[in-house]
Specification:
Blueprint (H helix, E strand, L loop, with lengths): L14 E6 L2 H18 L4 E5 L8 H5 L9 E5 L7 H12 L5 E7 L6 H9 L3 E5 L5 H14 L6 H11 L3 H14 L6 H8 L3 H13 L3 H13 L4 H20 L5 H8 L3 H10 L5 H21 L3 H15 L6
Parallel strand pairs: 1-4, 1-5, 2-3, 3-4
Helix pairs in contact: 3-4, 5-6, 5-7, 6-8, 6-9, 9-10, 9-11, 9-15, 10-15, 11-13, 11-14, 11-15, 12-13, 14-15
Length: 329
Amino acid sequence: MATKKSSPDDLLAPVTLAVGQEDLLLDRAVREVVAAARAADADTDVRDLAPEQLQPGALAELTSPSLFAERKVLVMRNAQDLPAETIKEIKAYLDAPAEEITLVVLHAGGAKGKGLLDAARKAGAREVACPKTTKPAERLTFVRQEFRSLGRSATPEACQALVDAIGSDLRELASAVAQLTSDVDGTIDEAVVGRYYTGRAEASSFTVADRAVEGRAAEALEALRWSLSTGVAPVLITSALAQGVRAIGKLSSARGGRPADLARELGMPPWKIDRVRQQMRGWTPDGVSLALRAVAEADAGVKGGGDDPEYALEKAVVTVARAARMRRG
C-alpha cells in the first residue's frame, strides 16, 4: 500500500476520505472533487453510489479500464454500511488505484466500518473532516468562515445574530450568508441581519427577551407583538425571557474574571458573557427575583393557567423591563 499522504489541496488525489456526519460538509467535499475533475475533463463520469449499489463485484466493474480512458469520480456514501466483502474489495483496490479514477469515500466515523477508515488513511488518502456541529461556538465559527470564504466582512454581532436567528442547520446558515453577501454591499452588521431575519421564531423571541432585560419596555412590547403576529409560540417567548433573566442572575452572583473563565464556571459561551455583562447594568438581586416570578406567572398563563396568553406575556415583559431599571430608578 502507498503510504505517502495526499495533500489536502490535491482535489484529484486517488482517494478522498470525508469523515463525519455533517451533511452540508460531506456534500461540499463531494462537489469540490467533482468540480476539479470536470475542470480537468468536462466529460468526467460521476457515479454517486449508496451501499446497496456496491454489492460484491461492483467495484471491479466500476474501476475497469475504459476504451476511451475517461475520467471517473466514484462517490461511496455511508461507507460504514458497506458489506464486508465490498470493504475487502476496496481495501485491495487501495493497493493500486486506477489512473483517471478518483474515489470519494464518505464515512460517518466511529467504530462501525473502522477497518476501511484505517486502510484508506494508511494508503495516504486525502482526508476532509466533516464533524457535526453541536455547540453554538462551532456554528459561530462556521458563519465567520463562510463570510470570509466569500470575501466579505461581517461584524461579530452580525455573525452572532445570524446564528441566533437561523439555529443549528448549517445549510440554512450557509444559505443565509450567501443571500446577505449577494444582497448587501459593504460590511454586514447586526442591523442588516435583523432586517432580513427578525421574523424567525428564535430570533424574534430572543429579541423580545433582550429588549426586556435591557429595560427597553416599549421596544420589547413592539417585538412581542411582532413575534405573536408572525406565529411565534408564546412558550418560546417565556423560555427566552427566563433564559435572559437567569443569565443575569448567574453572572451577577459570579466572581469577576475573564469571559473564558466565567464561561466555564457558568456553562455559557464567552460571547454570551460579554453580552450579559452589558445587559445587567441596573439589575439588583431583588430585580432578578421579581422578574423570575413574573416570567413564571406568564409561563403558567401561556400553558393554560390563564385566559389571555398575550396579556400574560405583555405583563411579564413590562415587569422584566422595570426590574432591569430598579438600580437606575
